[in-house]
Structures are given as structure tokens and as C-alpha cells.
Amino acid sequence: MSVQDFLLRQYAKYKMKDVPEAQREMLLPMIEKNPELFKKIGEEIERRVKGGEPQMKAAMEVMKKYREELATLMQQP
């Protein structure tokens, strides 16, 4: 594991501290496979929340938008 991978994993754990451990462990490998996608998702959610949208609604809408990319990541070994 490179230093960059380690830092990415630690940052993701920090940002997902309220997410249950099992879900976190499922998401971390996906984040490591395509960190740019998750950065883009996070930025879009943040923009919507700052615009006044509730965080849960913003997250659900953004995840729907990127559903195909996320499904592809889940299927990769």
C-alpha cells in the first residue's frame, strides 16, 4: 500500500465516521479504485447542501446520477 493509498483510506474513514463499519468496509475498496469519482460525488453533494438542500436528499440524488459508475465499481474484483 502506497502512502497515497494510506492517506486516502484514512481521509475516507474520517469523512465516513458516522457510517456503520460494515458499509465503510464495503465502500473503501471502491473509493480506492476510483478516487476521482468519489471526489466529484462529494463536491456535488457539498454544493447542493450549501445551496440549502437537506444532506440526505442531496446524497441520494447525486448517487442516483452516478448509479451506473458505482454499479460498475461494485462489480470489479
In terms of structural class, how would the helical and strand content be classed?
mainly alpha
H/E series: HHHHH
What are the segments in which pLDDT stays under 50 over at least 5 consecutive residues? none
Q: Judging from the principal axes of the Cα atoms, what is the shape?
A: globular
Content of β-strand:
under 5%
Let me know the largest β-sheet: none
Number of domains: 2
Number of strands: 0
Helical region count?
5
Cα-atom Rg, whole angstroms?
Answer: 13 Å
Distance between the termini: 17 Å
What integer is the average pLDDT? 86
Helix fraction bin = over 70%
Question: Notable features of this structure?
Answer:
81% helix, 77 residues
Could you provide a short overview of the structure?
The chain contains five helices and no strands. By secondary structure, it is mainly alpha-helical.
Structure, described:
By secondary structure, this protein is mainly alpha-helical. It folds into two domains: 1-33, no CATH class; 35-77. Helices cover 81% and strands 0% of the residues. It has helices spanning 3-15, 21-33, 35-50, 55-65, 67-75. The longest helix is centred in the middle third of the chain and has 16 residues, at 35-50. The model has no long low-confidence stretch (mean pLDDT 86).
